[in-house]
């Protein structure tokens, strides 16, 4: 199995020169997108297309794709440095981050043919694979309860069911889908009989996408599958083993998003410190009061502790 997101690497925990280079490069891209850019986007509920294009062109969203498939061939720690630095600069990696890690399922469990077909295009940004459909109205944390089914009928799988809270579907060409290929009452273990598919959203018939506003800066949709047909070559890995594949991917996702949160924390501590040093009330800067200093110091310590936890993960 090739090294990739979610697998332990031998990268050192201390920052290497490569990581410092990455930070500098990401900072340069982010400097082209000042705070006003993000504020306007938010006001207009627009997708940061220009930012995503710039990050892709610089190669950062293909960081975890091996070089032989056109990516940078870096490990999860480098991915954390990249996404963390985006948020550290006051930007939001959320709309772009899934292009970095969703392909991990394909990389770790896909066939050589699938990898050669899709990974170079994902690395170049010609294809966006930044949607994954797992959650359903009756199955959130309890993933094995999903009811969306993909049953073999002749030479195709036929998908029926419903997904909710699925992010970035409208900004993706491809989506990773988890569906039941064997009914729950026919499997020995609840985690068996689930399979992962690659859905080409550009060609999908029998799929209705209904945008639902859930969180700011995050485009989320409800998906209704009504007889959507998938060719067997779109299954990733072995039929029935999809639960494990999805959990593998979630581990990488959680660690990368934690790195973004650390980036956010550092940015907020910096902003709070600047404000405390410049705002004057009762004839002196508010930062001269311990009541203002202590919460900032506590936040700083918490963020640094969280950063160590991310590095350990
Ligand atoms: C903005 C946003 C974007 C999302 N994007 C995607 C996406 O792209 N793709 C996708 O598939 N899903 C997505 N989700 C769904 C997300 O993964 C689910 O919300 C999550 O899995 C939790 O499911 P739930 O909301 O149904 O919570 P539930 O499963 O109903 O759980 C409710 C609460 O109970 C807690 N809980 C449950 N069981 C226990 C227990 N045994 N002990 C202690 N606590 C427990 C849970 O931790 C949770 O806090 C998104 C959600 C949001 C809000």
Secondary-structure blueprint of this entry?
Layout: H1 17-31, H2 35-44, H3 49-57, H4 76-88, H5 94-101, H6 104-109, H7 112-124, E1 129-133, E2 149-153, E3 156-167, E4 174-180, E5 194-200, E6 207-215, E7 218-230, E8 235-236, H8 242-278, E9 280-281, E10 284-285, H9 290-312
Parallel strand pairs: 1-4
Antiparallel strand pairs: 2-3, 3-7, 4-5, 5-8, 6-7, 9-10
Helix pairs in contact: 1-4, 4-8, 5-8, 8-9
Flavin-adenine dinucleotide binds next to β1, β3, β6 and β7.
Can you give me a brief rundown of this structure?
The chain has 313 residues and is an alpha+beta fold. The protein is built from 9 helices and 10 strands.
CATH architecture of the domain at 130-245: Beta Barrel
Beta-strand level of the residues, as a percent range? Answer: 15-25%
Instruction: State the fourth-level CATH superfamily of the domain at 130-245.
Output: Butyryl-CoA Dehydrogenase, subunit A, domain 2
What's the total count of β strands? 10
């Amino acid at each position: 199995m090739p090294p990739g997101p979610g697998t332990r690497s031998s990268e050192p925990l201390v920052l290497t020169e490569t990581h410092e280079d990455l930070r500098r490069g990401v900072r340069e891209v982010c400097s082209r997108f000042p705070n006003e850019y993000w504020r306007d986007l938010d006001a207009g509920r627009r997708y940061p297309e220009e930012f995503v294009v710039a990050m892709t062109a610089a190669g950062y969203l293909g960081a975890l794709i091996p070089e032989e498939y056109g990516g940078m061939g870096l490990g999860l720690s480098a991915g954390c440095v990249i996404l963390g630095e985006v948020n550290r600069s006051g930007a939001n990696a959320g709309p772009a981050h899934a292009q970095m890690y969703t392909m991990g399922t394909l990389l770790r469990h896909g066939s050589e043919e699938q990898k050669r077909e899709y990974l170079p295009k994902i690395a170049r940004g010609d294809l966006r694979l930044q949607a994954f459909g797992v959650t359903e109205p009756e199955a959130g944390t309890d993933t094995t309860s999903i009811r969306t089914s993909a049953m073999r009928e002749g030479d195709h799988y036929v998908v029926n069911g419903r997904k909710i809270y699925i992010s970035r579907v409208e900004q993706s060409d491809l989506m990773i889908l988890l569906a039941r290929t064997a009914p729950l009452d026919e499997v020995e273990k609840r985690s068996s009989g689930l399979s992962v598919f690659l859905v080409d959203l550009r060609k999908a018939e029998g799929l209705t996408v209904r945008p639902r506003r859930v969180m700011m800066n995050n485009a989320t949709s409800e998906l209704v599958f009504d007889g959507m047909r998938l060719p067997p070559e779109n299954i990733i890995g072995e039929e029935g083993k999809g639960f494990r594949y999805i959990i593998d991917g979630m581990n990488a996702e959680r660690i990368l998003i934690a790195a973004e949160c650390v980036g956010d924390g550092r940015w907020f501590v910096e902003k709070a410190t600047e404000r405390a040093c410049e705002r004057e009330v009762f004839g002196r800067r508010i930062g001269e009061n311990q009541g203002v200093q202590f919460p900032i110091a506590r936040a700083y310590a918490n963020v640094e502790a969280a950063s160590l936890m991310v590095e350990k993960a």
